[in-house]
């Protein structure tokens, strides 16, 4: 089952980069929890359920270009950790920025039920998985 979870997160990353938020929403459980350790100003750092869409929309509105290039998927059974190179292009000045970090996702029955984003590195994301597990 864990390879299926990695494949799901890989598909969701592809959908994210394509701006297909509806695909992501279809694979997020109604009561899913998301914590962003680097939230945008005026955007909640922790959300549940439908509020996940609000956070995605806020990130898209804040940047003209916004993409996540996962360089490593770490399979931890129900959990998948992604080591990611984020690329942002500011909406106002077109300034390009890159940031390397990690995210952790928990999948149950083909749906994301928990996620945390904005970790400084893979080790921090794995630590969060250990605490959750």
Specify the CATH class.
Alpha Beta
The backbone outline, from C-alpha atoms, is: globular
* Sequence of secondary-structure elements: HHEEHEEEEH
CATH architecture: Roll
How many individual β-strands? Answer: 6
Report on the architecture of this protein:
With 133 residues, this protein is an alpha+beta fold. It has a single domain (2-132), classed as Nuclear Transport Factor 2, Chain: A (Roll). Helix content is 34%, strand content 45%. A six-stranded mixed sheet has the order 2-1-6-5-4-3, sandwiched between helices.
What structural keywords apply?
133 residues, Nuclear Transport Factor 2, Chain: A, 6-stranded mixed β-sheet, 4 helices, 45% strand
Provide a quick synopsis of the model.
The chain has helices spanning 2-17, 21-26, 51-62, 122-132; strands at residues 28-36, 46-48, 63-76, 79-90, 96-108, 111-119.
Break the fold down into its secondary structure elements and pairings.
Elements: H1 2-17, H2 21-26, E1 28-36, E2 46-48, H3 51-62, E3 63-76, E4 79-90, E5 96-108, E6 111-119, H4 122-132
């Amino acid at each position: 089952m864990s390879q299926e979870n990695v494949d799901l997160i890989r598909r969701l990353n592809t959908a994210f980069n394509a701006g297909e938020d509806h695909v992501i929403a279809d694979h997020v459980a109604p009561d899913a929890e998301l914590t962003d350790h680097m939230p945008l100003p005026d955007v909640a750092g922790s959300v549940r359920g439908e509020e996940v869409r609000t956070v995605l929309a806020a990130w898209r509105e804040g940047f003209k270009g916004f993409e996540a290039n996962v360089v490593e998927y770490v399979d931890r059974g129900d959990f998948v950790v992604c080591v990611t190179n984020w690329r942002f292009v500011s909406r106002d000045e077109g300034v390009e920025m890159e940031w390397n970090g990690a995210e952790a996702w928990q999948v149950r029955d083909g749906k994301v039920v928990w996620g945390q984003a904005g970790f400084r590195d893979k080790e921090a994301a794995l630590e969060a998985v250990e605490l959750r597990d």
